[in-house]
Design a protein that fits this description.
The complex is a heterotrimer. Chain A is an all-alpha fold. Chain A contains eleven helices and two strands, in the order ααααββααααααα. Chain A has one domain. Helices cover 75% and strands 3% of the residues of chain A. Chain A is globular. Chain B has two domains: 210 residues, 3-Layer(aba) Sandwich (Rossmann fold), CATH 3.40.50; 158 residues, Rossmann fold, CATH 3.40.50. Helix content of chain B is 41%, strand content 21%. Chain B has twelve helices and 14 strands. In chain B, the strands form two sheets. In chain B, strands 7, 8, 9, 10, 11, 12, 13 and 14 form an eight-stranded mixed β-sheet that branches. In chain B, helix 2 crosses helix 11 and helix 11 crosses helix 12. Chain C has one domain. By secondary structure, chain C is an all-alpha fold. Classes of the chains: A mainly alpha, B alpha/beta, C mainly alpha. Chains in contact: A-B, A-C, B-C. Chains A and C meet through helix 4, helix 9 and helix 11 of A and helix 5, helix 10 and helix 12 of C.
């Protein structure tokens, strides 16, 4: 039972990381109608900036600021230089251009920082584990990630429901043309939203650094899963991103943790493991296919 | 023509060919992984190999060589294309460099089918060590299972009874778990296959904690291993449950990256930077001087592969036209390996000693892999018997 | 479309160049070129098949690698059973005859496209993109976990298939075989596009509701196009399996779907020549740049961005006299 509890927490923590990435992606997608494959690159930029700053200065605060700033600036630069020219184009042109950006960023980072993965230490104060229930220690850092995720979700909720920018964002997600027609300075709104999305991706990246290794290509590994989250939740919907991210995080973790053991009861060990690993990877995609067939607009559509 | 006359003619022809060839540098094709998370492995192999060439002033065994390097990006298909390009456009006959077993599995048969020679500086998959061994295929590093057999032996020697073992779900991962189980005398209480693209091992950590084994054995090369160890520490398992790993899961890059989380881990390897022999001292010093970093064992393997090739090139005077002659020269292994004693077994895979290392913090405050003792002597692989050459 | 003959001439010229190229390459002693161009042509078949639904039909499938990989794996699996001697599922004997493996590959990829298309085509827009991706990823992970067929490491096909006494291992033979298939498939696409069926598909792309309103069963038309495209990708996969003598889950990965999509967009969607140009230039650029610098991706990326920004309608639109003949 405690094992199940621990695995659920792991799933929630993965869900939080996915949420941070998905929130930006879904806003950019919902409001500007842009498919940004380079969103994963922003995650990578955030992680690298934080890792490099941490090893140069030894300060976790500076590292965090550097990671956030680097991701946001890179994001706004991408928007200004490339994507701004592509809003009127179809999705496929955006796919090709942002794919080009992925190649550029991956190789650029390799040229700057080399091929060796970088390492970031967890700040000493956060490196321990606490017993959530007796006998189950859980890393403080992962609890912190969950906490940050909840804070960001609440913050975004307030931003979107209580502020003028939020109002425009909501309006934009529902009907882009109408917002433009009403004379809102859409360019500025776009840059701000893009910067915000990049900031969240950078936040996810810099928090992921101490858990996983900081390496080239880390963005693409998580990008597709992020798209899955966005689609399951409903495009343009922050609440959908929360629901989708938690669902994907928990389903993925639970399948990986328990499916091989279940299969082992039915067949030989090695085969069960291989099949279990394969089936559990398939799980989230099966989930997405089901959601799309039953509720094509996602679980929590944007204009709910 | 009688046999003697035939041989004589061959020798004369070979002699003629040699004098013609000697002007041209011998081309060596290196297909290796330089990009992605596994990129530093290929980088060290290339740099180690290049170092041997540079130390001889552009030659190997007195023969001028030209090293052609291309990145396979850990894609078997891409590796095949590069090999084909080298063979067709550059007329390369001698190949080396492949890091990962799945790339080797696809590329090596192509090279051998075309009559080329392959000398492996790293991957030694089981299928080429047994029945499908080949006269023109040499492995300077190890047979894959060896790495993990030594870890199994070490775990047994250290008195562990119940082991939890993990590896990614691909050929080398399966070889790893097989190898470990071969020489581990205790009971395996948990066996988990992870994913090659996995970045979060929290689920596995929980399983390990629930199983409460005496020892954890895991095989996760490159970036995967770094991630695994960091999370092992964060989960509070480090220091509670000891870990034994083979060299690929704890090279000096991994150690630096993981930091404190690596202290106290037992590692088995065939080479370590602190080995006390002339060849190794020369190598470690020159490598650090040229590249300004500590070599990993991949670097030593690249260097040793170059030395093995150098010895053979010297014996045949740079003439690759007679592969059998080159093969006989290779088999003598007439070079000073950085790991000390080295010879080829009947399947042209190494027979060598394996050592137990431990990660310790030195008096200078730096982490280092310290050699503890020998685990296996003159160890060959389990497949040599099936090979009929 | 029929009044202007220039696109047709450009297409004919491309094939003429492809026809003489091996002789020039042999004369220049550059045999590696032959195999490189063979690879380009195989990708051109796959890209053309994607173009049929993406460019002409407006169905953005992000799972096209699934059919390509299935075609390849059909050849690989039949070969593996041919070598081992035990029949597949206990009844189907393995084989290395291309005359059997190719139709089998077409059948498997076609049936699969039929099943996935039937489900996916209930959605549209971004949902369609993602659901095709989802199904392709499931196939990918299925093959990763099939230990019997090499799992992640893939299957080696030691010898290419046999075809009426031809040596498929021979570069020139295989080159012309591939060229023949490319010409046939592009010809088929041309026929389809200009047929009544093609007009309906084009009509659906422009305005599906209008087509439905005039009494066309759009779903069925789309499904048929989807299956024809899937079989084209299966053909490319079967050829690639014989050319590379190797199949792996890499052929099924989403990045492969992305690559095919990029070839189509790069070359010019909704044109017969575009996908061929796209395949040739993307693989050509990769090969040239990677021979020139280790950091080739650093240069390829911005080149792609520039093409998007300044060449609307892809490379096709850059050819003098063809601008405006593309769909765009």
């Amino acid at each position: 039972m405690t094992l199940v509890l621990e695995q659920i927490l792991n799933g929630v923590q993965l869900g939080v990381m996915l949420f941070l990435l998905a929130a930006g992606l879904t806003l950019i997608f919902g409001i500007m109608g842009v498919i940004n494959l380079a969103h994963g690159s922003l995650y990578m930029v955030g992680a690298y900036a934080a890792a490099v700053t941490a090893s140069a200065t030894g300060s976790a605060i500076l590292a965090m600021l550097a990671g956030l700033a680097a991701a946001a600036v890179t994001g706004m630069a991408i928007e200004y230089v490339v994507l701004r020219r592509l809003y009127a184009r179809n999705h496929l042109d955006q796919v090709l251009a942002t794919f080009g950006l992925i190649l550029f960023f991956n190789q650029g980072v390799t040229m700057l920082f080399g091929r060796q993965p970088l390492f970031v230490d967890i700040p000493a104060a956060l490196s321990g584990a606490v017993e959530i229930v007796p006998g189950v220690p859980y890393p403080v850092y992962r609890l912190l990630i969950i906490g940050v995720g909840i804070a960001v979700a609440v913050g975004l909720y307030l931003l979107i429901t209580r502020t003028r920018i939020g109002m425009l964002v909501r309006a934009g997600a529902t009907n882009r043309e109408m917002v433009r027609a009403l004379g809102v300075d859409i360019r500025l709104l776009y840059t701000v939203v893009f910067g915000l999305g990049a900031l969240l991706a950078g936040l996810a990246g810099l928090m992921a650094g101490p858990i996983t290794s900081v390496q080239v290509g880390m963005g693409e590994q998580i990008l597709i899963l992020t798209f899955v989250v966005v689609v399951i939740g409903g495009i343009g919907s922050i609440r959908g991103a929360v629901v989708g991210a938690l669902l994907v995080g928990i389903v993925d973790t639970m399948l990986r943790a328990f499916l091989p053991t279940l299969l082992r009861g039915m067949m030989a060990g090695a085969e069960a493991d291989a099949l279990g690993a394969g089936l559990s990877s398939m799980g989230v995609y099966l989930l997405m296919a089901l959601v799309l067939l039953l509720r094509p607009k996602g679980l929590v559509p944007a204009h709910g | 023509m009688n046999r003697k006359g035939f041989l004589l003619t061959l020798t004369v022809l070979a002699g003629l060919a040699t004098s013609a060839v000697a002007q041209q540098p011998v081309k060596i094709g290196m297909v290796t992984t330089l990009s992605g998370p596994g990129g530093y492995l290929g980088q060290d192999i290339r740099d180690g190999f290049q170092l041997a060439i540079d130390l001889e002033g552009g030659k190997l065994g007195g023969v001028p060589v030209q090293l052609l390097v291309e990145d396979d990006a850990l894609k078997p298909g891409q590796g095949k294309q590069i090999a084909e390009k080298f063979m067709k456009s550059e007329r390369v006959r001698l190949f080396t460099g492949i890091v990962f077993s799945n790339v080797a599995g696809a590329v090596v048969p192509d090279i051998l089918d075309e009559g080329g020679i392959y000398v492996s500086p790293n991957a030694g998959p089981s299928n080429f060590a047994g029945k499908e061994c080949h006269r023109n295929y040499f492995v300077v590093s190890w047979q894959n299972d060896n790495l993990h057999e030594s870890a199994g032996q070490a775990a047994t020697d250290l008195g562990y009874k119940r082991a939890f073992i993990l590896a990614p779900n691909y050929q080398a991962g399966k070889d790893a778990l097989t190898g470990f189980k071969r020489l581990f005398k205790g009971e395996v209480i948990g066996e988990v296959y992870t994913r090659l693209d996995q970045t979060d091992f929290a689920a596995e950590m929980a399983q390990i904690r629930a199983a409460q084994p005496d020892v954890v054995f895991q095989f996760h090369p490159g970036g995967l291993g770094i991630t695994f160890l960091k999370q092992y520490q964060q989960a509070g398992l480090l220091g509670t449950i000891p870990m034994v790993v083979a060299a690929p899961s704890m090279d000096s890059v991994t150690m630096e990256a993981v930091g404190d989380a690596s202290v106290g881990i037992s590692v088995t390897s065939h080479w370590n930077a602190d080995f006390d022999n002339e060849a190794n001292k020369k190598f470690v010093e020159a490598f650090q001087k040229k590249y300004n970093r500590l070599p990993t064992y991949y670097g030593s393997q690249g260097y040793d592969t170059a030395l093995a090739i150098a010895a053979a090139l010297k014996a045949v005077n740079g003439d690759l036209s007679d592969t059998e002659k080159f093969r006989q020269a290779m088999l003598k292994a007439d070079f000073q390996s950085t790991r000390g004693a080295f010879k080829f077994g009947p399947n042209q895979h190494p027979v060598q000693d394996w050592y137990l290392l431990r990660v310790e913090r030195g008096s200078d405050g730096k982490l280092a892999l310290r050699t503890q003792r020998k685990v296996l002597s003159d160890h060959a692989d389990a497949y040599a018997g099936q090979c009929k050459l | 479309m029929t009044t202007n003959r220039r696109p047709l001439m450009a297409l004919g010229l491309t094939f003429a160049v492809l026809l003489v190229l091996p002789f020039v390459a042999t004369a220049l002693d550059s045999t590696a070129t032959i195999s490189l161009v063979t690879r380009m042509m195989i990708y051109a078949i796959a890209a053309s098949s994607l173009n049929l639904i993406l460019g002409y039909g407006g169905m953005v499938s992000f799972g096209h690698a699934a059919y390509y990989g299935l075609g390849g794996y059909t050849v690989g699996i039949l070969y593996a059973h041919f070598v081992s001697g035990d029949p597949l599922f206990g009844i189907i004997p393995g084989t290395n005859q291309f005359l059997i493996t190719l139709p089998a590959a077409l059948l498997v990829s076609g049936l699969f496209a039929l099943a996935l298309g039937a489900l996916s085509l209930r959605t549209s827009g971004v949902q369609f993109i993602m659901i095709t991706l989802a199904f392709a990823q499931m196939v990918f992970f299925l093959f990763v976990s099939l230990e019997m067929y090499g799992g992640d490491d893939g299957l080696i096909i030691r010898r290419p298939n046999e075809l009426l006494g031809l040596r498929l291992r021979d570069e020139l033979t295989f080159y012309f075989l591939t060229l023949g298939f490319l010409a046939a498939y592009v010809g088929l696409c041309g026929r389809i596009v200009n047929s009544r069926f093609g007009m309906v598909i084009g009509g659906i792309r422009q305005n599906e509701r209008r087509m439905a309103a005039i009494g066309v069963s759009t779903y069925r038309y789309k499904l048929v196009a989807f299956v024809i495209a899937g079989m084209g990708a299966g053909l490319a996969g079967a050829l690639m399996a014989n050319h590379a003598r190797f199949v792996s889950p890499d052929m099924l990965h989403w990045t492969k779907s992305g690559e095919l999509m990029i070839m189509v967009i790069l070359g010019g969607m909704g044109t017969l020549l575009g996908p061929i140009l796209g395949a040739i230039s993307l693989i050509g650029l990769e090969s040239v740049l990677s021979g020139w610098t280790e950091n080739w991706q650093f240069y390829l990326g911005p080149i792609l961005v520039l093409i998007v920004l300044f060449a609307r309608g892809g490379l096709y639109s850059l050819i003098p006299g063809l601008r405006g003949n593309g769909r765009d």
